[in-house]
Structures are given as structure tokens and as C-alpha cells.
Amino acid sequence: MKVLVPVKRVIDYNVKARVKADGSGVDLANVKMSMNPFDEISVEQAVRMKEAGTATEIVIVSIGPAAAQETIRTALAMGGDRGILVKTDQTVEPLAVAKILKIITEQEGADIVILGKQAIDDDSNQTGQMLAALLGRSQATFASEVKIEGGKAEVTREVDGGLQTIRVNLPTVITVDLRLNEPRYASLPNIMKARKKPIDEKTPEDYGVDITPRLKVLKTTEPPVRTAGVKVESVQELVAKLRNEAGVI
Amino acid sequence: MNAESNLDVEDPQITQIRQSVIALCGNFPGEYWRDLDQKREYPTAFVRALTEAGFLAVLIPEEYGGSGLGLTAAAAVLEEIQRSGCNGAACHAQMYIMGTILRHGSAEQKARWLPRIASGELRLQAFGVSEPSNGTDTLSLKTRAVRQGDHYIVNGQKIWTSRAEHSDLMLLLARTTPKEEAKSRSHGLSVFVVDMQKAVGNGMTIKPIRTMINHSTTQVFFDDMKVPAENLLGEEGQGFKYILTGMNAERVLIGAETIGDARWFIKKAVDYANGRNVFGGPISKNQGIQFPIAKAYAQTEAANLMVQKAARLYEQGKDIGAEANMAKMLAAEASWAAADMCLQTHGGYGFAEEYDVERKLRETRLYQIAPISTNLILSYLAEHVLGMPRSY
Fold first, then answer.
1. Would you state the pLDDT for residue B1?
2. Contacts of A32 in chain B (CB under 8 A)
3. Which residues in chain A have Cβ-Cβ distances shorter than 8 Å to B7?
4. Which terminus in chain A has less CB density within 10 A, N or C?
5. Tens-place pLDDT, residues B159-202
6. Is the pLDDT of residue A117 over 60?
């Protein structure tokens, strides 16, 4: 069974994002970039499936700038077999990503695509769902547990209000949530081996996908600074403030 | 904090190694180290994790089961360990002591020991050099090894032999030709690989020394200890020369560790100062708080340039006596300055164990003394680089 794992290069989760002076976006110059943490979880899931004998090959895909090759290498060091870099310096929106991934999934004949449920930079949470729709495949999103058995996937989903377990037919698209697993760190010998694993370089044009953004970013702003709260002495005072100052009751 | 910004483009493989080490170290938080510190115990789980992930075999050639990378990669591993708040002192020597076998051992000796050092099956992380009566005056060491048939009989004593209780092999420097009969000042010392598993109780006695940090250091006594002649590295009498190259590598790596320490202190100080609110705002808005942190940062970045330069030159096969010494001195001074700054930034809280500042401060202080004290580095520079008379 072939597994396709798309990974995205994003601003490192430890870095405090800063808005560009002209408000056109987040300043990424000289900022530490890493693999989207949700994608690390998808890679881990795929590697565990391979270790368990469920998956036979893991193909890592990234769509982004040349430097995204290093994100692919990180996934290869964790246990991916080979990579595909779809190189572009443009912003690629979820629909365009899904269109490219659809073609790659079909070309590769991948039985399962495992994606992070969202990327921590734009938090779109759309690509996996769009991909399933374009492929006409089942989808199992926000997975916190995955079992593959007899041509079906049993997936526990983290939904509002609790856990939901569904069974979907393969081939399928799975998006993963934080609690699915704890991603491994690559060992040094595996980091070395990953340098020798093949990465195909492509462009969006190779797949005939027009990646021109459909959305226009009007402005980007820093979140408002959180102001200090107040302590109240009694319930009566709290109710009075909610009624008179906040006007919410 | 965006001190991560780096205009220099690093080899992506090194960056990946750093990321992986950081992820590994994430499993060993401050409380793990505090607990060990209190009990004066060895970080066995941490060392096992590093070994299993192959990071301690970074310098061992691939043909012997290591990764065959250079000193820059090894420096990156140690820097990230320290920067993550962990302590590589427990096992850093496993990385580099084997260098003496690699450079001066016979093909047979290399095949015998290196693969098992690479896998971690054999720990070679004890280096018997210093003795109570001679300190840094290595050439005056008194431990004697006398050839008798196919063995050497060793008598004497070593001190500050770190990790001796957590090592399977020891690299031992002993005198094989009496000083007065030696051809030259630096002749007459020889290097042996001692199988400690066999030696302890058979001529070797280890006595731990309790110190201000959890460092597993010891005294080692030799009383008619037998070492097979086949465990002699290289030629008899040439030992001092053999260990010097290894010492340079060690200094660069200790330099990288202290850079990591300094970066830990700086981040810790910035985070604390930004979060500590008194007199109606974060203390970090005061220049009195900002400037010492900024100064420590600048000092660290400057010292790191020397560490990186020394590592690069070593990889090119250059003699880096001066650079290795300067790298270790500057980096250790930067980390101590950062430690002092960090404690001052924290005020009273810096003394509380749960902040880890006092522990890291104690630990990083060591590196102005070990593996070579700052005074000896300055003497080296004065004599060998600047051409002034030998002062000692």
C-alpha cells in the first residue's frame, strides 16, 4: 500500500510572528522555518504503518520554495522513502494545493493520503477535505487514532464534544490531529541516509495547475495586546459589572 | 525571541542535526536534571537516547559504524544539548576520546574497538591524564608503565578522571621511559587503551570525588595493573604527541558546549525579564536589565565565531593549537558572563533550584578550569603565538 504524505514548510512554532511594516503579510525574512507540526504527525503515522507492514512505500510531497526541499529531507530522515518537490515561490492556496495533490495521488497510485489537519501559518484546514472531494474519495478528518484493516480504515476523530469513530473505504484521505502520536526525532544515521534518498523536482505547470491566488489579502495585523483583567470581591460585583460595564447580561 | 535569525546559511544537514537533537532533548526537561543533580546520579536514560540516535558516533568513520562527519557537526550536537538545558558532560568524551585510536591505532585496534564504540556497546569516555602532583604539567606525570613480556605493569594514580565509573575503556597516558632517560622533554609517555571491566579489582581502584556539580569525576589508582602490550597505541614513547591533537578537538567541542550554555542563559533571561512584571511593567523595559543581556548576546556571538573557525580549520587538517585554545577560553568566558547575567536578571528566583539557573551556572563554571584552565591558555598564546618567553 502506497502512502502519500504532503508536508508544508512554515514559520517555526517557537518563533514570534511579526507583521511586515506595510501590513501585507507576516515577515519571513531570516526567520526560522520548520515542518508544520501537524505534518510531522502525518509522517510519523505513515512511518508506523510501514513499520507495521501496512504501508510499502511513503512518498513525501511539498509545494513551496526551493528551501522546502529541507522539509522533505526531514520527513525522509524520519522514514519517508522518496520525495517530490513542487517548486514555486508564489503563495499557493488550499484549492491549488489540493489540485496538484490530486494529480500526484493519481499518478503515484497512492492508496492513502495522510495530511496535517491544518498548517500553523494560515490555519486554513481545507486542503485534505478539498483533496478528498476532487479525488471522489472518502475522507476521515481530525484523526486521533487510525486502524487499517481489510481495505477499510477505522478512524477516531476529534470532534466538538468528544470522539467519533468512523469506518471509511480505501482509498481514502486522512487528516491528523495533535493527539494521534508523538513524532520521532530522526537518528543521525537516518539523517545521513535521507541525504541520499531521491527528490523529484517539479513545478505547478508540470501538473497544469493554475496557482494564481483566488483570494486577496486586504491586511495583516498583530493580534491586539491583551490587557490586564480585574479582580472582583463578590458575585454581586461580578454581576453588576457584567450588566453595567460589559453589557452582556 | 527571534535570536534564531541567522544571516549565515548553514549546511542544511547540520541544521537538521540540530533540530533532531533539540527534539531528543525535549524528553529530558529541567526536572530530570534537577533530580539527578540532587542525587548525584548519572543521566543513564539521556545518554542511552543520545547513543541510540547515533549522535555520540558522529565523528566515527562510516566504515566503523559511525556517521563520519566533521567537528562542526559534533559541535552542533553538543551546542544544542547545552542550549536545551541538558548536560552533555556526561558523555561528550564518548565522541572524541576515540579520536586517538582512530588516528594512531593499528588497523587491528581500530577494527577491534571502534565499531563497538560506535554502537555504544563499549563506552570509551574516561581519559586518565591528570595526576595529583602535576596538574596541567602533563609531562611531569608519574604513573609508570613498565614492559614485562607481553604486558605492561602500571603503577600510579590519576585524578579528575571523569566518568570512570561509567566507562568500559580508559585511555591512559603513562610514562614508559623515566623522565631523566627520555630523549626529549616530550618523549617517554605512552598511550594505552585499558579494559576497565577487567582492570577494576585487578590493579585498578576507582574512588568518586563529590564536587559542586553532578559530574561523576573520580580518582583512579593503579597497583600493579596489567595491560596487554597489544593495547599500546602507536609507538612507545610518542604518547604526548598523540594526545595533543585530541585535546584540540576537545577544546573546540567544549567551546561549542559553552556557546550552547550561553544561549540557554540568554533565552532564559529574556523570557524571564519579559514575563516578570514589577513597578507596573515587565522588567525587560529597563535598560539596566536589557543591556547586560544584550552584551552577553554579543559576547556569545563573537565567541561562537572563533569556535566555528577552529572547527572548520580542524576539518581542513590544520594545526589549530591557538584557535582551539582561544575558542574554548572565549566561549567559556561568554557562558560564565551569561550565567552571571542570567542569575542577576532573575534576582532571588535565580537561587531557587526550580529555575535551573543556579544548576546551569555551577555546571558552566567548570569550563574555565577544565579541560584546561584559562591561565594556561593565555600562557600558550603569549609564548607560542606572540613570541614571548615561557613563563612557567
1. 42
2. 2, 4-5
3. 30
4. C
5. 999 999 999 999 999 999 999 999 998 999 999 999 999 999 99
6. yes
A and B: number of Cβ contacts within 8 A: 58
Best probe of the A interface among B8, B9, B13, B50, by most A CBs < 10 A, is B13
Give the gap in angstroms from C-alpha A36 to the nearest C-alpha of chain B. Answer: 13
Contact A14 B4 (CB under 8 A): yes
Cα–Cα distance for residue pair B121/A233, rounded to 1 Å: 64
Q: Is A234 on the interface with B (CB under 8 A)?
A: no
Q: Give how far B302 is from chain A: nearest CA, Å.
A: 19
- Of A135-139, A149-153, A226-230, the least confident: A226-230
Q: Which residue has the cell 563573537?
A: B302
Tell me the pLDDT tens digit for each residue of A159-168: 999 999 999 9
For residue range B303-359, what is the model confidence (pLDDT) as tens digits?
999 999 999 999 999 999 999 999 999 999 999 999 999 999 999 999 999 999 999
Q: What is the pLDDT of residues A7-32, one digit of tens each?
A: 999 999 989 899 999 988 999 988 99
Q: How far apart are CA A127 and CA A129, in angstroms?
A: 6
What is the C-alpha separation between B224 and A231, in angstroms, rounded? Answer: 75
> Is the Cβ–Cβ distance between A41 and A183 less than 8 Å?
yes
> What residues in B contact A10, CB-CB < 8 Å?
none
pLDDT tens string B33-47: 999 999 999 999 999
Helices (H), A5-126: 37-51, 68-78, 94-108
The ipTM of this complex is: 0.90
CA A69 to chain centre: 16
**Which pLDDT does position A249 carry in this prediction?**
84
Q: For residues A214-226, give the mean pLDDT.
A: 90
In chain B, the percentage of residues whose pLDDT exceeds 90 is 94
The count of residues in chain B is 392
Q: Which residues of chain B have a CB within 8 Å of the CB of A18?
A: 2
Instruction: Report the percent of chain A where pLDDT is more than 90.
Output: 89
Residue B133 Cα, gap to closest chain A Cα (Å):
42
Q: Check CB contact of A13 with chain B, cutoff 8 Å.
A: no
Q: Determine the residue of chain A that is closest to B21 in CA distance.
A: A185
Q: How many CB atoms neighbour CB A208 within 10 A?
A: 9
**Residue A168 φ/ψ, nearest 5 degrees:** -125, 155
Chain B hits for A14, CB-CB cut-off 8 Å, are: 4
| Contacts (Cβ under 8 Å, ≥6 apart) of B92 | B78, B253, B254, B257
Tell me the mean pLDDT in the region A38-56: 98
Of A26, A33, A100, nearest to A67 by C-alpha is A33
Quickly tell me which residue has 542544511 as its cell: B12
B52 to chain A, any CB pair closer than 8 A? The answer is: yes
- Does B53 sit within 8 Å of A185, measured CB to CB? yes
Mean pLDDT of A134-156: 97
Q: Does B49 touch chain A (CB under 8 A)?
A: no
Q: How far apart are CA B100 and CA B17, in angstroms?
A: 25
Read off the DSSP letter of residue B200: B
B276 touches B348 (CB < 8 A):
no
Q: For each of the domains in chain B, give its residue range(s) and CATH number, in order of start.
A: 6-119 (1.10.540.10), 124-238 (2.40.110.10), 241-385 (1.20.140.10)
